Amino acid sequence: MADEMIGNISLSMILQEAEKYIESKENLELIEKAFYFAKEKHAGQYRKSGEPYLVHVMHVAHILAKLSMSPITIAAGFLHDVIEDCDVSKEELAKEFGEDIAQIVESVTKIGNIEFVDEKEYLAANHRKIFIAMANDIRVIFVKLVDRVHNMRTLQFQPEEKQKRIAQETLDVYAPIAHRLGIAQIKNELEDLSFQYLHPDKYYEIARLVEMRKVERDAQVTQMITTISKMLMGNDIKFNIFGRSKHLYSIYKKMVTKNKRFDEILDLLAIRIITENELNCYETLGYIHAEYRPIPGRLKDYIAMPKMNMYQSLHTTIVGDEGNIFEIQIRTYEMDDVAEHGVAAHWKYKEGSKNMPAKGRKEIEDRLSWFKDFNMMTEGVDENAVEYMDVLTSDIFDANIYVMTPKGRVIDLPNGATPIDFAYRIHTEVGHQTVGATVNSILVPLNTPLKTGDVVKLRTNKQSGPSEDWLKVVKTSHARNKIRQYLQKIQQEERSTLVQKGEQMFKEEAKKRKLEDKSFKKLDNILNNFSVQSVDDLMYAIATKALSLQSVFEKLDVQKPMDEHIKFEKLLASKAPVRKVEGDTGVRVKGIDSMMVSMSKCCSPVYGDDIVGYVTKGAGIKVHRKDCPNVVNEKQRLLDVYWEEGFSHGDYESVLTIASSDRSFLLTDLVTTTSQLRVRLLAVNSEIDEDKVHVTTTMRVVVKDAQHLRNLIANLRKVDSVIRVERKIL
């Protein structure tokens, strides 16, 4: 094979990197074959820089080899654009290189092909495609991230507008994914390159400030390294120590988000110490704290409590001899590898390993806590990309507290999360059945905010279920979605039962009226009269007493004689003078002195309410409030009625519903308030709600007029723990 340099890279450079960990001749030949296939298919294609397109895929393969990826992944790096740019089908690729490589290349291609709607949906859709691909085969993400790294390295050849768009997408999509996978090396490079194109003035300003202090800073770091080295050698600890530089974008973020000046950022002077084991890490920390004063609140133990991306290290910030501030990181060699390469550190190809993808995936799921919950978290979320990403972002990637099960499993949750959120993260059914929780062996309310380090034990009951109030308590989108789904299911089941009950009530009434064969056929004709969409809605309203059976049958007009129609029309057209109706209702009706007039029981009008008369069949005129749902859509049978001026001898019944939080002496306070206003109490009933937290009280009272009733309602609302007071429609 005659090697050739293309741009600043050659096949031999890639093979030399691969040969450091790949010995199999067959595997190395697969990489070569992929190179020559790509070379043939991309022939005649050039990048904006003027270089052959092949240079790009070679760099992608080279970076993958540096990450010690498998031969299949490196080959996929060579081939990742042939389906999109070279009219190569997946079937052709599978025939040449096998199903694995074809699937990886197809998945990488699909991630890039997104129809742009708006920025938020575009980013969410891109995130979702990446995570779905990752759930299937994480090698897809390695290829896509490395592809983006090289594209960003050569972004200077694109037009300025495209530079900013690609840089923003990189910062919003790819850098966060690299961070969540723990690949700091790639994440830092993507952030700094994006920063350079999005905010060039700020980028070069910070770069200049860093460079200005470089000599002074390096001298301070070197002196501290010398001192710590002597200390550790004197205590027989094997170690490696070096200064590390802060990447520019992280400095910029701290200046912006924490409103700090450049000189105020503590970890510009940073030292990393690598030891052989965890015990050495803690010993080293102890020796450093014994010699130097640590800054309070800056000690972080990510070894005992790893970050969600597997990162482990001890962090402390100390004050040096001359008052300089140093951030010290202490970790093992394995932890350092994971800190730089994240998931890639566990995916490194080892010659002779069998079932590498399955084995690697299992190892990642065991180590990467959020990945283990990945499919469970988004199960049941609809196809809306924004909602999908909201669940992942709020529940997984914004997680900043770490709580434990009694068996020591660590659960990552967002700040403010409660035992209910914790329960739903364990399992949906555990969440539904949760009735109590103990935190650190102390019984706590279910709305208690959890803190890092809490040990949570749940109490469950298979007969229990979530209440609507839980929606106000939970912080995670996952828990909120599961609670809503449960409540919707219960509501549908309850509605179905009530529809059947309404049908039974209707049929029994129809049977009494000897209308079984006629009434059901006409129900569709009267739906508009009650503002319902279907017969099921009508039956539901009957069962819940939102509509009375009498009003429904009156609308049906079944077997109504013609002379009654004529009588009714004459009644409406009557020009007779207004006459007082005998009785104690205080109501006047136009032109009527012989028909019975009574107050409707469904809405219980009170003197002073806006009222209307409804002409019934055989029961005279019923007086309703104008907003009564039983007459609000009536067009024909209504009459104008009025309250008699100066009438002051009425007693009017009214039914009130009072919603409140449960507490001692609640009912006593409600009854006392009613009595103080000289309102006669006919009946009172108080029942605790299903959530065991709230109470619904029903009061039947007698008042003099609407003003008397309004005063009662206003005073009841002032009673402690009362949420709302409403007049009830029967």
Structural features, described:
The chain has 730 residues and is of the alpha+beta class. 48% of the residues lie in helices and 16% in strands. It has 30 helices and 24 strands. Strands 3, 4, 5, 6, 7 and 8 form a six-stranded mixed β-sheet that branches. Strands 16-18-17-19 form a four-stranded mixed β-sheet, with no helix packed on it. α8 crosses α21 (385-397) and α9 (139-153) runs parallel beside α11. It starts with a strand and ends with a strand. Residues 558-583 have low confidence and may be disordered.
| Largest β-sheet summary | 6 strands, mixed
What overall geometry do the principal axes of the alpha carbons give?
elongated
Query: Which runs of at least 5 residues are low in confidence (pLDDT < 50)?
Result: 558-583
Structure class: alpha+beta
How many helical elements? 30
Q: Give the CA-CA distance, first to last residue.
A: 92 Å
In angstroms, what is the radius of gyration? Answer: 38 Å
Number of strands: 24
Q: Please tell me the overall pLDDT.
A: 81
**Portion of residues in helices?**
40-55%
Strand content: 15-25%
